[in-house]
Amino acid sequence: MDHFNYKNGRLHAEDVDLAEIAAAVGTPCYVYSTATLTRHFQLFDDALSGMDHLVCFAMKSLSNLAILKLLGDLGAGMDVVSGGEYARARAAGIPGDRIVFSGVGKTREEMAEALQGGIRQFNVESEPELRALSEVADRLGATAPIALRVNPDVDARTHEKIATGRKTDKFGVPLERARDIYALAASLPGIEVIGIDVHIGSQLTSLDPFEQAYTKVAELTHQLREDGHDIRRLDLGGGLGIPYTRGNEAPPLPAEYGALVQRTVGDLGCEIEIEPGRLIAGNAGILMTKLLYVKEESDRRWLIVDGAMNDLIRPAMYGAHHDIVPLNEPAAGVEQQEADIVGPVCESGDTFARSRPMPPLAEGDLLAFRSAGAYAAVMASEYNSRPLVPEVLVRGDQFAVIRARPTIDEMLGRDRLPGWL
Ligand SMILES: *Cc1c(COP(=O)(O)O)cnc(C)c1O
Predict the structure, then answer these.
(1) Which of 24, 122, 212, 215 has the least CB density, counted as fewest CB within 10 Å?
(2) Residues with active-site annotation
(3) 314 assigned to a ligand binding site
(4) What is the pLDDT of residue 159?
């Protein structure tokens, strides 16, 4: 459920007419709903309410400071994957003891920053990383709390580029190596073993792979405790999918996911951490864009919009589907016509939808790409020298620009000419 609905024939974000935002900010632009973000965070928090837990927002999905502050104020922790994200989380007021550091390639500099700034835990993904972290912590006279990310070798049955829990994926250490690496961790200076971490992929639409993975984590918890490790925290990752197509069968709900967590690992006496990104942010945002031209040649029809792959890369990168709806509600039963919806960027990859049935549209009409809250604005670039797409946050009947569109001068001003030119 989200808060982007038609009211009196016009698409609103909560109580704000989106056309009003388009007039004030211009297009393309992203618009997020406070109520949807809040609701989705709360669903996860409630789903785990029977257990000691922390919901850490996977901020790589949407990392604007305003969004982080909003979620942080609700009690969210953050799952960060770079020094930049760590700095963002801190700048948004998230205390270090609510920040988890994930990722296969943390640098020693990033480790040091987090150790000095305060960190809840490092999710360590390999033996060499563990040794590096030990060195850095020891040098600083600090102790790094760690969970080892294990790779349970389950197939999340999701898109190839976002499956992370198979043996052939670059993430974590194989389960059968885990006990040895935990033994090593316990022997290294500057390292404190506190838990186990697992994350098997993103946009999962079935609970089965989670069940397989968490069952293996429960077994490993028992084994590691037998080996003498004080396993007191389980980080179960993120990955719950969202419905990108309205009306299609919906993925499992956070409540069902919570019940699964309770059933598989709930009796281990561990604190539970989860790292949802997409389910919190995905349907909390739209990309608003304007129709520039309707081009018709032979039997094809193109709707050329002012948003492009540099603003929203998911269709080009993952073949992702986004529902695309006009801001003016089409009359019921109106005849639809198929069109390819494309942006202005100079490659054919800049195609958002092919042969998509659309209601009648004219130049200047505004369109919303739904489910564009997660892995959308954060992946935007300035390809084709298109200024970075702005972001707007709505709350009730108010809205605020939370990232302004750079001016052309600001964009050019980042370049430098070397002295010899
Ligand atoms: C990307 C990622 C997540 C979030 O995944 P979602 O599908 O957005 O919920 C959580 N944990 C880790 C380690 C990740 O890499």
Answers:
(1) 24
(2) 346
(3) yes
(4) 81
Q: Are strands 391-395 and 29-33 parallel, antiparallel or unpaired?
A: parallel
Is 60 near ligand 1, meaning CB less than 6 Å away?
A: yes
pLDDT at 161: 80
Cis before residue 28, ω within 30 degrees of 0?
yes
135 is in an annotated binding site: no
CATH superfamily of 4-31+283-413: Lyase, Ornithine Decarboxylase; Chain A, domain 1 (2.40.37.10)
Residues of the chain with pLDDT under 50: none
Amino acid at 320: A
Query: Residues spanned by CATH 3.20.20.10 within the chain?
Result: 103-274
Question: Is the Cβ atom of 238 under 6 angstroms away from ligand 1?
Answer: yes
| Intervals of CATH 2.40.37.10 along the chain | 4-31+283-413
Helix (H) or strand (E) segment spanning residue 196: strand 191-197
Give residue 228's pLDDT: 98
Q: Are 42 and 64 in contact (CB under 8 A)?
A: no
Q: For 103-274, which CATH class?
A: alpha beta
pLDDT at site 106: 98
pLDDT at position 59 is: 98
Distance 277 CA to ligand 1 centre (A): 6
357-366 as b/e: b if 16+ CB within 10 A: ebeebeeebb
pLDDT attached to residue 165: 78
The CB of 275 under 6 Å from ligand 1? The reply is yes
* pLDDT the model gives residue 167: 79
